[in-house]
Write a structure and sequence with these properties.
alpha+beta, 7-stranded antiparallel beta sheet, 4-stranded antiparallel beta sheet, 6 helices, 28% strand, globular
Length: 242
Amino acid sequence: MKGGCRCESASTLNYFVLSKQICTFGHSNRKKKMKQILTILILWICTMSASAQEMKTIFVNLPDSIEPLLTKVNKEDCVDFLDSGMKAVVKNRFDRSAELKVLTSDYLQMQLSDVSTLELKLLPLKDSVRVICMVKTVCASACDSDIRFFDTKWNELDASDFLKYPVEDAFYLPLDSLTDDVQELRAKADISLMKATLSADDTSLTWEYTTPLTLHKDDCEKLIPLLRKEPLIMQWVEGRFE
């Protein structure tokens, strides 16, 4: 009982601290700051009932509406297989092989099909509050990723609160001037495709510019020297990828 009282008191204190912060912001920034604090407050309430959850529980509870390729039985079987030291391969809804490759307390990587992968990462927001970052990547001639954010009960959050997608120029080397040939070449790369990868070991997000792979071989070879050799890496800092 005493331990429970301490937890309840701490929770109440956190609630009042957050509430006080909402009331003390300056007028000019109040609307923006209130949105941020209210988001944290909502997430904190959700996290209190899910703080002991590990990634395996979150994965099993992943709704069909968010990832329709996997049934709940698929997800439960994958976790059971890994727990038993077996290869976690199942048949998805389209009777194609899917494999859970990596599962830790805060990270998951799964091959959903021959052309699509799923990554999940639990990221700290404030105190005990965590958010789920989902990266889904689909590959054809080139790979492209979609990133979404959720609370631990799978309610979707506004991705713009946590991430701003990189601009294409971030992948190019700086040039003193753009020649007509370079401008023509870049004009051919008119579809912006980027592959994003989460890390199992830290809270980084790595971006690769994959648009050149959609070009004719000759154009691709001409474009590659214009690009930075290293991928773009964002770090999770104070509740955002920067």
